[in-house]
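Appendix B. Extra example for self-study. Work through it before the problem class; the solution is given directly after the inputs so you can check yourself.
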Amino acid sequence: MEKRDVAVLGVGQTKFGHHPDKSLIDLFAEAFYEAFNESNIELKDIQAIYYGNFVGEMTDGSANLSGFISDEIGLKGIPARRYEAACASSSVAFREAYLAVAHGIYDCVAVGGSERLYNAGTAIGTRALATAVDGLHEMTAGLTFPGVFALAARLYAKKYEIPMEKLHEKMAHVSIKNHKYGAINPKAQFYNKFGDLKVEDVLNSKVICSPLTLFDCCPMTDGGSAAIIASADFAEDVIDNPVYVLGTGQSGAGGLFRQKEDMIKAIPRKISVEMAYKEAKVTPKDIDFVEIHDCFTIAEIIASEAMGFFEYGKGADAVEEGETWVGGSIPINPDGGLIGKGHPVGATGTSQVYAAVKQLRNEFKYNQVKDAEICITDTLGGDFGTLVNIILGIHRRK
Amino acid sequence: MTDVISFKEYFDALLEGKLLGLKCSDCGAYTCPPKAVCDSCGSRNVKRVELSGRGRITTFTTTYVAPVGYDKEVPYTVAMVELEEGPWIVGRIEIENADEIGQDLIGEEVVVEGKEYPTEMFYPDKKRRVVPVFKLVKA
Ligand SMILES: [Zn+2]
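Solution. Structure tokens for the complete assembly:
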């Protein structure tokens, strides 16, 4: 079936960080109203809500959130549902919303997510995040998320014959870059902090899961994000600057023990990204910048390879050589990424869309990528499990 | 014929020093831990077998920041092992100085045993947690 073109009308994002005084619903509402206010529509135009949240049960004792949210934000009675796919929750929500609009089920819908992991504290937060590993066979050994990427880092070093210490120095450049950009992003958790890290600062910070240190890791974050999306025809009637959804992809995999050494090739990401490129009729060469899921330094490197920007085993050199910095051949995470901006899990996917849309509209004052026309987002849920990619651009699909 | 091995059976056997898995009658591949189908080809034509329990370390990490429920166990070293028969499993290495050994630990030969730990609030087995423990053959 022929799909309709779909566009983003407006985007919103709360400040990321610690919000002890705002509930999951408050955080979503704040982001939603920012998106709504720039969409030039009425509340009654919104026909459904697609909401991403990972662990509301564990952090706030709340599940079944979507119905409450529709009521609390003034959209009483419309269909609403929650999507859970770990860190990819709101990217899955976005993709489902996109598909519903593209196939004519709705004309205009709200998407987004919220999460409160900072507020939950490190021990509960770490356990909550670990619900995204295999609950029996990985959890029994106490595998955590930094642990997953530590396993991947050692495997990467072994496979590509890079001494671990040398690889860690290269990985440090991901942290340096993303903290530099996070430090100038007013909505980032680390705004005005860690903008001038050195390799030694990263290597010498506290070891979380060897070899990963604190600065290899994204933080625990509270925050919300949202977007309003509609058919392109609807969008062009109400705003001057729609950003079009050119393509999406999604794939998945079992636990790390099922993926074996392919974990560092991120096969589900390859499947997902190729689906998105094909639908958008673009290749990696057409992409002007990327919003990548850098939950850990090594994660950004592995992702940049699987997405087709660098050969396998070369992503670590690329960041060290400046290729992924703004001004380089393929800028990655000009908003600071998860490491610099923060990672409110269920809100992360639509916050990548937020950053992409602001860039494409030339509104990204503090770190604008020049003449950017096409961006791809990349969100990873679980241990290389759920993968979602979204391609956005300023022109309709060819 | 489809054999099914429950997680209880799998962990019970591990505590007795036996590693259970499935062997595919169609493609010959082994699946461990067991699941509903052959991990290699997706066939349901799988038969219960006992694996050798021997393999090599492929990667590992020592955890210093634990989730709630695991905090009394830090620091602990999680490892992945490639079994002789092909599957990879996740477990722990009980070793003091894993980080000092570093990458050289990768490739070391191990045998797997089961060890019982107290369960925690969210673990699927409400009676206990059985952890696969890898013993270095050379030690
Ligand atoms: Zn088979």
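Self-check: The domain at 6-121+220-393 of chain A is CATH 3.40.47.10 (Peroxisomal Thiolase; Chain A, domain 1). If your reasoning did not lead you there, revisit section 3.
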